[in-house]
Structure formats: structure tokens, C-alpha cells
Amino acid sequence: MTTGKQLKAARAVLGWSQIKLAVEAEISALRIKKFEVGEGRLSPLEISTIRAVLKNAGASLPPEGEAPGLMLGKPK
């Protein structure tokens, strides 16, 4: 399960703000902010989109169902 802490860590590694992630994923920055602090939820489609954007930028989250973490490096 993707967590708010993972999103925050991925953004930190990339040097992205919540606004930058929101623009790249075409999702409200407020929704991202609330998710990261545990006050909101994101739809499966939003999570999938964010995961793809982060992966393309070089910060991949582990597959759903695996232990939380962060993998670095652009996809091959």
C-alpha cells in the first residue's frame, strides 16, 4: 500500500514540492498534502498516476503489497 510517507520521501529525493508533483500527476496539490499527512485518501487511479510519474522521474515505489520503501534510478 502506498503511504503518504513514501510520497513525501520520493518528493524529497527528487527535490519536488507538493505543487510540482501535483502538476506532473495532474492531481490537486491539496489532495496530495492531505494524503501525505494522513488526513485524506487518493483513488487507486490517482495512486497509479503518481507512482508512474515518480518512477519516470527516477524514484520508484515498491509494488503494492510489499514493504514500504523507495527505489532510486530511472527505469530502463
Q: What does this entry show, briefly?
A:
With 76 residues, this protein is mainly alpha-helical.
Walkthrough of the structure:
With 76 residues, this protein is mainly α. It has one domain (4-72): 434 Repressor (Amino-terminal Domain), CATH 1.10.260. Helix content is 54%, strand content 5%. It has 4 helices and 2 strands. It has helices at residues 4-14, 18-25, 29-36, 44-57; strands at residues 59-60, 71-72. A two-stranded antiparallel ribbon has the order 1-2. α2 crosses α3 (29-36). The longest helix has 14 residues, at 44-57. It is globular and about 30 Å long. The N and C termini lie far apart (24 Å). The relative contact order is 0.21. The mean pLDDT is 88.
Any chance you could write out the topology, listing elements then pairs?
Layout: H1 4-14, H2 18-25, H3 29-36, H4 44-57, E1 59-60, E2 71-72
Antiparallel strand pairs: 1-2
Largest sheet: 2 strands, antiparallel
CATH architectural arrangement: Orthogonal Bundle
Low-confidence stretches: none
| Structural class label | mainly alpha
Mean pLDDT: 88
Fill in the CATH topology: 434 Repressor (Amino-terminal Domain)
Please tell me the total number of domains: 1
> If you compute it from the alpha carbons, what radius of gyration comes out, rounded to the nearest whole angstrom?
11 Å
Question: How would the global form be characterised?
Answer: globular
Q: How do the strands line up in the largest sheet?
A: 1-2
Task: Give the terminus-to-terminus CA distance.
Answer: 24 Å
Query: What share of residues is helical?
Result: 40-55%
Quick one: CATH superfamily? lambda repressor-like DNA-binding domains
Helix and strand sequence: HHHHEE
At the first level of CATH, the class is Mainly Alpha
Q: What is the tally of helical segments? A: 4
Strand coverage percent = 5-15%
Oligomer: single chain
How many beta-strand elements?
2
